[in-house]
Amino acid sequence: MSKVVTTTLLPDVAGGTVTLGGTGDSVVATGNDLRTNVLQDAGGNAVLTSNGSGVLSGMNSGFGGALNLLSTQTASNAANVSFTTQLTSTYDVYIFKFFDWNPATDGTDCTFNGSIDGGSNYNVTKTTSIFRAYHGENDSNTGLDYEAAEDIAQDTGYQNLSFYCGGDADECSAGELYLFGPSSTTYLKHFYSTVQMIQGGEGIDSTQNIFVGGYFNTTSAINAIDFKCSAGNMDAVIKLYGISKS
After folding, report:
1. For 117-174, how does the pLDDT look when each residue is reduced to its tens digit (9 = 90+)?
2. What is the chain's percent helix, strand, coil content, to nearest 5?
3. Residues 6+ apart with CB under 8 A from 106
4. Is position 9 within any domain?
């Protein structure tokens, strides 16, 4: 067995190809450590590009349907959480996932709204529908019903994602909000959410599975989204992802 020790291995002509092994051979990278800033396929197309510090970009369109994490915001006794720069034409679908959304006020609502002016105003006209399934801890109150008091008909106010959310130290809401084509200037902007929460402030704690669907009734681009409680501050972790339809 021979061993070659070198710091650089070059092809015999500039721009040529260095081939390691032949057909059917296994090429072993000791310690599973293969370092490159650009990963290319056999046709020389960039699949992944790194800036050398672990930040990936230039993903090949073959990854178009993958979740791409764009931002993570952590609220600690904050009045709201806003995403004001990430909603662009880069992606066709934006997904907000929120974790451990704990209101400071027991029995309050977790809400959201959109903006067409970069977050200066959150007052986009919307129409929504909302229903829920619920089950009390004492097994006495159960049901599946439409929540007419929680929906919106052509109004600019904040939409409830969950309501009467428990504010105890071990209570919170968790879920996700999908927003479709926010940068379109042709179509209205559809959205829907699914939230699991513990209802508090009404005497009997219960599990609540809440479903919201609707649309922003505007052909202007939605370029910012704001989350807040209907009363008091909040703790939460909210992540934003982008998905391309192609």
Report:
1. 999 999 999 999 999 999 988 888 899 999 999 999 999 999 999 988 888 888 889 9
2. 0, 45, 50
3. 166, 167, 168, 200, 201
4. no
Token digits of residue 158: 């904040």
Q: What is the pTM of this model?
A: 0.76
* Domain count across the chain: 1
Q: State the residue range of the domain holding 132.
A: 68-243
- Measured between its terminal Cα atoms, the distance across the chain in Å is 49
Closest Cα partner for 165 from 225, 98, 234, 102?
Answer: 102
Give the Cα separation of 213 and 129 in Å (integer).
5
Could you identify the residue written with the tokens 């040529």? 16
Q: Is residue 199 part of a domain?
A: yes
CATH number at residue 80: 2.60.120
Q: Is 17 exposed, middle or buried (0-12, 13-18, 19+ CB in 10 A)?
A: exposed
Cα(197)–Cα(134) distance, integer angstroms? 10
